[in-house]
Design goal:
There is one protein chain. This protein is mainly α and 165 residues long. The protein has a domain at 53-162. It is 80% helix and 0% strand. The longest helix has 32 residues, at 131-162.
């Protein structure tokens, strides 16, 4: 089954594959931009695809996260998962509660695991940040993260070429 899924993904056009990877939780554009560059997509297009894929999930996730979470928490397995997820997000609460929208943007902008747009949506929901503040903050964070990931990826590619590999 896994081989079938991987085969299906390999048949997708490169642009769609980058959009899909950039929209996935955990990977987000931190995986999408390096993937795009490794597929030979030019840097500016890699940036646009990564940011677009990561941004596509923000609007629906902000509206649907809370109702879907409430519905799924009725099941023991999902309740445990969301308890764990919310606890991880609360550990980053100081910055968000102190600076609200700016803190949310900074949380999303840091290109580390568990700090992207999905975590921003969860944090906005947990800390009851209004949509009109949360949406632009998360998008600003995605843009900043995209620039950082692109630059780090290009530096990695350039340094890799410089050592002759």
């Amino acid at each position: 089954m896994l081989n079938h899924m991987l085969d299906s993904f390999s048949r997708l056009p490169k642009d769609y594959l980058v959009l899909l990877v950039s929209a996935l939780p955990v990977l987000e554009l931190r995986g999408g931009i390096p993937l795009a560059l490794s597929l030979g997509i030019p840097p500016f297009k890699a940036f646009l695809l990564g940011v677009a894929g990561n941004s596509l999930i923000v609007l629906p996730a902000l509206f649907l996260f809370e109702p879907v979470t409430c519905a799924l928490r009725r099941f023991k397995l999902w309740a445990g998962f969301f308890d764990w997820l919310f606890e991880r997000t609360r550990k980053k609460a100081d910055r968000i509660q102190k600076y609200e929208s700016l803190g949310l943007a900074l949380l999303v902008a840091v290109p580390l695991p568990m700090t992207g747009a999905w975590t921003g949506v969860i944090a906005a929901s947990l800390f009851k940040i209004r949509f009109r503040y949360a949406f632009p903050a998360i998008i600003a964070g995605v843009l900043c993260a995209g620039v950082i990931v692109l630059l780090l990826s290009l530096l990695g590619i350039l340094s890799w070429k410089a050592v002759g590999r």
